[in-house]
Amino acid sequence: WLPKAHVEAPIAGSMVLAAVLLKLGGYGIIRMAPTNISTTLIYPMIAMATWGVIMTGLTCLRKTDLKALIAYSSVGHMGLVASATLIQTPWSTSGAVILMIAHGLTSSMLFCLANMLYERTNTRMLIAMRGMHKAMPLMTSYWLIASLTNLALPPTINLIGEIQIMTTLFNWSPLTIMMTAMGATITAIYSLQMFMTTQQGRLTKDSKETYPAQTRELLIMLLHALPILLLTLNLELIY
Dihedral angle at the C-alpha atoms of 16, 63, 27, 168, nearest 10 degrees? Predict the structure, then answer.
């Protein structure tokens, strides 16, 4: 139901859902998950969460709807958070909190960028949004920041959270490294594909009259990118 809620909601609803409501769910799992849960229950739950990361990533590779692609990406990252919170160790909980904060900023930024393109092209199809670098060159820099943080490029805060979660899962069960590594690789592929499809190539006939980015839109992007930069430079701001 989560991708449908993301896609069918207005832009404000998608941003609040990705940035706040999903994090309330993660916080609830951290607070309510029992510390003495049996291993027989943890194994299938974490296996489903890590397998969900791969399946949502593969779904993103074939999505032509930009907003649906970002929605499935959001679901995949929360699968990592769910698997980390179930282990209930200080290292895994710390990684889950860091990734939730990073994902809240990145996913909200991507949804906002997708809506800006939708307002100009009246479509969410990736093929109809190509060549936006020529129409809005300044927004390309924000697309690059959002795409690179989404794929956890070093030394962003997203990478720190994912590395902590992957390390915890590997220490708990070495088999999980296959699932998490594959999920991270697929995430990098569809994030770069999304950036290249929307920004490169020739403008379509319907996009040649696209107006440049407005001041309020640039301010919204700055308010997303600035916290990501500050947290990357000084992670202690979270604590």
Answer: -150
Most distant CA pair in the chain, distance: 61
Residue type, 12: A
Distance, CA of 200 to CA of 217 (rounded, Å) = 21
Question: Where along the chain do its domains lie?
Answer: 1-238
pTM of the complete model: 0.90
Query: CA of 210: how far to CAs of 107, 123, 206, in Å?
Result: 24, 13, 8
Contact 195, 144 (CB under 8 A): yes
Convert the pLDDT of each residue in 150-199 to its tens digit.
998 888 899 999 999 999 999 988 888 999 999 999 999 999 999 998 88
Name residue 131's amino acid.
Answer: G
Tell me the two tokens of residue 73. Answer: 């990406």
Q: Is 88 left (phi over 0), alpha (psi -120 to 50) or beta?
A: left
Helices (H), the chain: 2-8, 11-16, 22-32, 39-61, 66-87, 90-121, 132-135, 137-150, 157-172, 176-199, 215-233
Query: Rounded CA gap, 13 and 19, in Å?
Result: 10
